[in-house]
Amino acid sequence: MYLFIEVVILIVTLTFEPSEWAYACIVGGIAGAVGVVIYFVRPWGLIVGVLFGLLGIAFAMDGLGDNLSSPDSFLDFAYRPVFGLAAAIFVLGGSAVGLVQHFRGRTSTSGPVNATRAVKGVLALVAILSILSAVLTVAGVNGVSAADKQGATTITAHVTRFETDTLTAAANGTTKFVFKNDDPIIHTFTIDALNIDVKVGPRSEKVFELKSPKPGTYDFYCRISGHTEQMNGTLTVP
């Protein structure tokens, strides 16, 4: 299942962000190596499977709230909480059961009928949720009209970075911004001190306004887990 996930990720990456192809290949290579170890190296490969399953669950749980609330972003919703979590649980459970079977001297590779049906049911649910997320992602792509962009400052997120790390806004009156997301994943433009938190889906844009903020310097960032370190900057109100 991990290999299937990485094939999907590679296809999506090559479609939306070809420059990031190495990421999918590296992760896919790691998943493939772990799969080979689990299958051919007994029983120690099963211990690797247990450890890799635990790491997979931790990875899937990172940013779980934002990912689950974003079914219109395939790589956020399907990758971690759907594909990733299901695969990690399967690897962890299968490896743990395999270890128990090994130490009990049982070598059968077939499980109980009810367990097999449950696995098939989970796989079907994963497939349905993934297809729905893919449809919602395509349908949810939206832009901002030229009229709405008039007079606005554009903030662009690309390759998990803001293209500018310095912005200005007027202390008196309204400053209009367009937040443009060029990535195939969700991003936010967040300023805690001004209660601004604009979330934009893949390949989409959104207009927001800042009305007469107090003069000063404010930090902005993307609050999505793993993005903040390289997506941040300052907004100055003179």
Structure write-up:
The chain has 238 residues and is of the alpha/beta class. It is 50% helix and 19% strand. It has helices at residues 2-16, 21-40, 44-61, 64-68, 74-103, 113-140, 146-149; strands at residues 153-157, 166-168, 174-181, 187-191, 196-200, 205-211, 216-221, 232-237. A three-stranded mixed beta sheet has the order 1-3-6, with no helix packed on it. The chain has a three-stranded mixed beta sheet with strand order 2-8-7, with no helix packed on it. Strand 4 and strand 5 (196-200) form a beta hairpin. Helix 3 (44-61) packs antiparallel against helix 5 (74-103) and helix 5 (74-103) packs antiparallel against helix 6 (113-140). It is elongated. The termini are far apart.
Instruction: Estimate the mean pLDDT confidence.
Output: 87
Oligomer: single chain
Number of DSSP strand runs: 8
What is the tally of helical segments? 7
Shape: elongated
The low-confidence parts are: none
Read across the widest sheet, the strand sequence of neighbours is 1-3-6
- Please provide the ordered H/E string of secondary-structure elements: HHHHHHHEEEEEEEE
Largest sheet: 3 strands, mixed
Measured on Cα atoms, how large is the radius of gyration?
22 Å
Helix content: 40-55%
Strand portion, in percent? 15-25%
Structural class: alpha/beta
Q: What is the distance, rounded to the nearest whole angstrom, between the alpha carbons of the first and last residues?
A: 54 Å
Structure at a glance:
The protein is of the alpha/beta class. It has helices at 2-16, 21-40, 44-61, 64-68, 74-103, 113-140, 146-149; strands at residues 153-157, 166-168, 174-181, 187-191, 196-200, 205-211, 216-221, 232-237.
